[in-house]
């Protein structure tokens, strides 16, 4: 949604803020700005555009104070303009905000603030309200104002008469903070902190954080001070960088074999899945009668793969629900339902609200999350963390395959706990999972072939992806990747469904990407390919090696390494990630920051 940074310390505050905003820019990149406290003065630099544009407008400025705040915006209220960019300043108050204040218009009218407002944003109303109540007592003022706000907020505030001091308060929208030799800092997420330290804490909701150069104070609304609960992030300090790749997306695609190994190996004991480190009791898997997965986007696509495995191996009822639809679809949830929330960021508000709804209905909740200590993780009864490391590119790749890896382990664990798999079957299933890093490495080694195939769809406006069963789930994710980073209108269809209408759209040279990885579905998938080919389609096929000769060399194709059918998702999805990546980079787009998107969606 938006990226926020606050720093007070001994370093060059402009460089600290701008460097942090570059690391946070994946969260939102419509506009950017910083505010620096120079004694009683507060200087603001902001503009529509990227952090590099902001750097240009303040490059000649030198600051002595060492205290400031910064923001990268993903517009919600008000257009993408310099005026609407953060920070916002009203009277003695300067702030940045991530979230949505639902009652900002009523507040502006009720307190007659309109005259003071220059922007169209909800955030500026909060600044005006703080200024209205401020009489030299920051904590009292913050408490007075936030109790009037409806909605979500992470507020980071400077008061003119408080040199070198930053205040913050949050509700739902994330803020993490730390203190180290270089000073005290807070940010929307860890990527901006891990350059300085791997110790951090999550600012608890409705507590007021005061940052000073050598001290931080956490106070509840009753004025009681509490000790922050520090956590340690196990990310390599430099893993948030690009390590020489042109884009984070390519780096993160290439990291997948190691990310999967890190995610699974610590959870396999004697060849069997072992979740004892997470304290997950077997009863969670044996007592439930049905499963509901709630997630968004790519995380939801991981859930679709899990759904196929649960049905085919566990023979259980399972639903995968779009988190944004879940609460409004009268879901059948009770204490016999195991709800699994899947989220890379752990901050997607649709998924968080769906999880809270499920808990209110008595369900046990397990989450599969990449960011430790995130809101969804804290809301869950149990958490299985993926160990993908920081995922910066907006288009999710390694988070997806590590989510799948956790799901494979989870299904094996459930099959074993519920007596469907014996020890041998479970160990055999897990051994195949342990082969996935090598299978993916084989795809990565042949990525130049995919780059050549990408050339066939580079100029496409519309494109179909067709496959059956798990291939359809693979292509839903592959299609999202292509849409997200190349802006080609790609649609994934269950290939058997085409003849019920959509095949009317196939004309001469319509690009079609087909996946054929399920041996039991191969014959039908190939006849569907022939149907579109006979109507002029230009078909590219991603096919499992063992059945590749069935194409008789008739189609441009990419041959995937062989795995058991249910595991072919892993190499196939990586091949489609590369396809999307090469199309986007060859079109000259900013692959990591596609237009209109943000890495974390914290608005409903
Ligand atoms: C995936 O490439 C997209 N960026 C998007 O669909 C993403 O998967 C979705 O917003 C969910 O994010 P989360 O995993 O952080 O909850």
Task: Describe the model.
- By secondary structure, this protein is α/β, with parallel strands linked by helices.
- Helices cover 34% and strands 24% of the residues.
- The strands form 5 sheets. An 8-stranded antiparallel β-sheet has the order 3-2-4-1-10-9-11-15, covered by helices on one side. Strands 5-6-7-8-12-13-14 form a 7-stranded antiparallel β-sheet. A 5-stranded parallel β-sheet has the order 19-18-20-21-22, with helices on both faces.
- Helix 18 links the parallel strand 25 and strand 26.
- Helix 7 runs parallel beside helix 13 (398-417).
- The longest helix has 20 residues, at 398-417.
- The radius of gyration is 25 Å and the shape is globular.
- It starts with a strand and ends in an 18-residue tail after the last helix.
- The model has no long low-confidence stretch (mean pLDDT 94).
- The site of 2-deoxy-2-amino glucitol-6-phosphate has 15 residues, from helix 9.
């Amino acid at each position: 949604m938006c990226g926020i940074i606050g720093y007070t310390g001994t370093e060059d505050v402009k460089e600290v803020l701008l460097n942090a905003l570059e690391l946070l820019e994946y969260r939102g990149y419509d506009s950017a700005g910083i505010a620096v406290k120079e004694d009683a003065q507060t200087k603001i630099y902001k503009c529509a555009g990227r952090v590099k544009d902001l750097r240009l407008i303040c490059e000649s400025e030198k600051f002595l104070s060492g205290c400031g705040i910064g923001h990268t915006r993903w517009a919600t209220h008000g257009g993408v303009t310099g005026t609407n960019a953060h920070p916002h300043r009203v009277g003695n108050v300067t702030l940045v905000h991530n979230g949505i204040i639902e009652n900002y218009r009523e507040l502006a009218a009720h307190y007659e603030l309109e005259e003071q407002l220059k922007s169209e944003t909800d955030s500026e109303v909060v600044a005006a309200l703080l200024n209205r109540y401020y009489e030299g007592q920051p904590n009292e003022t913050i408490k007075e104002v936030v109790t009037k706000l409806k909605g979500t907020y992470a507020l980071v505030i400077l008061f003119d008469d408080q040199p070198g001091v930053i205040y913050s308060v949050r509700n739902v929208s994330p803020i993490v903070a730390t203190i180290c030799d270089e000073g005290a800092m807070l940010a929307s997420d860890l990527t901006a902190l891990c350059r300085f330290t791997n110790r951090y804490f999550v600012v608890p909701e409705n507590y007021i954080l005061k940052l000073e150069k050598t001290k931080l104070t956490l106070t509840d609304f009753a004025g009681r001070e509490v000790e922050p609960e520090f956590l340690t992030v196990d990310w390599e300090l430099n893993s948030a960088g690009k390590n020489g790749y042109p884009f984070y997306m390519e780096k993160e695609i290439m990291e997948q074999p190691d990310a999967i190994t890190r995610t699974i190996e610590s959870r396999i004991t004697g060849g069997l899945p072992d979740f004892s480190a997470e304290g997950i009791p077997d009863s969670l898997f044996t007592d439930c009668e049905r499963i509901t997965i709630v997630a968004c986007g790519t995380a939801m696509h991981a859930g679709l793969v899990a759904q196929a495995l649960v049905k085919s191996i566990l023979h259980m009822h399972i639903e995968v629900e779009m988190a944004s639809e879940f609460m409004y679809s009268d879901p059948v949830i009770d204490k016999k339902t195991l709800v699994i929330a899947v989220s890379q960021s752990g901050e997607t508000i649709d998924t968080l609200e769906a999880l809270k709804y499920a808990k209110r209905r008595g369900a046990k909740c397990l989450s599969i999350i990449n960011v430790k200590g995130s809101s969804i993780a804290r809301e869950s009864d149990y958490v299985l963390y993926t160990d993908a490391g920081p995922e910066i590119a907006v288009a999710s790749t390694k988070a997806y395959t590590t989510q799948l890896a956790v799901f494979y382990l989870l299904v094996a664990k459930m099959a074993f706990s519920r007596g469907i798999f014996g020890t041998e079957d479970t160990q055999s299933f897990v051994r195949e999972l342990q082969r996935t890093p090598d299978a993916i490495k084989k795809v990565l080694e042949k990525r130049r072939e995919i780059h050549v195939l990408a050339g066939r769809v580079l100029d496409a406006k519309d494109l179909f992806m067709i496959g059956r069963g798990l291939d359809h789930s693979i292509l839903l994710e592959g299609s999202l990747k292509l849409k997200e980073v190349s802006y080609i209108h790609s649609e994934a269809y269950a290939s058997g469904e085409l003849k019920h209408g959509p095949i009317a759209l196939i004309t001469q040279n319509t690009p079609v990407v087909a996946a054929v990885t399920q041996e039991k579905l191969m014959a039908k998938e190939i006849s569907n390919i022939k149907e579109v080919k006979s109507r002029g389609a230009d078909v590219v096929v991603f096919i499992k090696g063992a059945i590749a000769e069935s194409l008789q060399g008739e189609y441009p194709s990419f041959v995937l390494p062989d795995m058991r059918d249910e595991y072919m998702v892993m190499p196939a999805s990586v091949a489609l990630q590369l396809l999307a990546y090469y199309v986007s980079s060859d079109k000259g787009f900013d692959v990591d920051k596609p237009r209109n998107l943000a890495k974390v969606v914290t608005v409903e």
